[in-house]
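Escalated from tier 1: adenosine-5'-triphosphate holo job.
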Amino acid sequence: MTTATPESESPAAPEQNDDVALQVEGFKVYYETPRGTVRAVDDVSFSLKQGERFALVGESGSGKSTLAMGLMRLTRPPGHIAGGRAVLKGQDLISLSDEEMRQVRLRDMALVPQGAMNSLNPVMRVGQQISDGIIDHLPEDEPKPNKAEMRDRVVALLDRVGLQPMVARLFPHELSGGMKQRVAMAIAISLSPSVIIADEPTSALDVIVQRQIMQTLGRLQEGLNASVLLVGHDMGLVAQFADTVGVMYAGKLVEVAPVRTMFKNPLHAYPRLLIESIPTLDEKKRLVGIPGMQPSLLNLPPGDVFAPRSPLKFEPEDALVEPKLVEVEPGHWVQLSRASVEDFDKYAHLVDYG
Ligand SMILES: Nc1ncnc2c1ncn2[C@@H]1O[C@H](COP(=O)(O)OP(=O)(O)OP(=O)(O)O)[C@@H](O)[C@H]1O
Ligand SMILES: [Mg+2]
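Tier 2 regenerated the structure:
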């Protein structure tokens, strides 16, 4: 994780560090609803390094899937990308044509969508679904594989996600949840993308299968030296997988840190509470939830939206100050606000609220 650089002067030629796979800057995705604008992803910036495993966590409705879909340019009305950039291999994805973006999907960046197991076509055999994905996204200058070559490719992909060759002949309803999730992963890696976004790949699976799926995702990541953006809401589960954790709250990133730092020294009250609420085996403590509810993303009030739930004592006017995401030490970013950060005074010199 490195800093999100300020807006470049020349959007046509975005700068990008060599070790950065995907740089997201000021990314916004809004839904226009009859009741107003839902700012589901609001000014999110982070960078995903080459080979990095970045986990994005946050409670339901915090904007994780909206961000994942937005980065893939799969946002559907009433949603739209309202601003920002997502730079992959020196190209700003937001400025690509639909056709150019179609070429990027699977080849450079692939998504295992939330509920992937329900997104498979129920009337098409698994092998056919994998090969269709390959044909659809194959570079124009690459010859189309013949039948035998395609069969070999499909079998090799199934093998990489831990499935037997015979699975190619099955229909989705003949597979378990974990197997379907593996098929979705096989489709995602079919053209060896450099970035894989996996949105809650283990939800609705039992604990053992969850662990196996995470291991497979880890092996795929290593095999491709890909960068993974893993979306989840279970801090404990992602901690075992991720190098870096980003925590979202109400459409914004409130803290990003290397996983150890996040667990040892979370600075923002929200991740702190999330971590405190992870149950442990040896300590029979009462499980604490986070009091209050996430606010509606419709017409959010100004200032620090976490303030009403913050356990800290602060002056009411402190909650009205718009927090800023600031790098407090290398790779550790926090949305600084007196209403949400206990040691605020220690970092106050880093913020210029302008
Ligand atoms: N089509 C839509 N129209 C209006 N609002 C939407 C739409 N889709 C999502 N939203 C709103 O955007 C916000 C973010 O939703 P999103 O699905 O991205 O959350 P999430 O963090 O992925 O949640 P979960 O953990 O439940 O998957 C929510 O407030 C949701 O109500
Ligand atoms: Mg989601």
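Confidence is low (pLDDT under 50) at residues 1-13.
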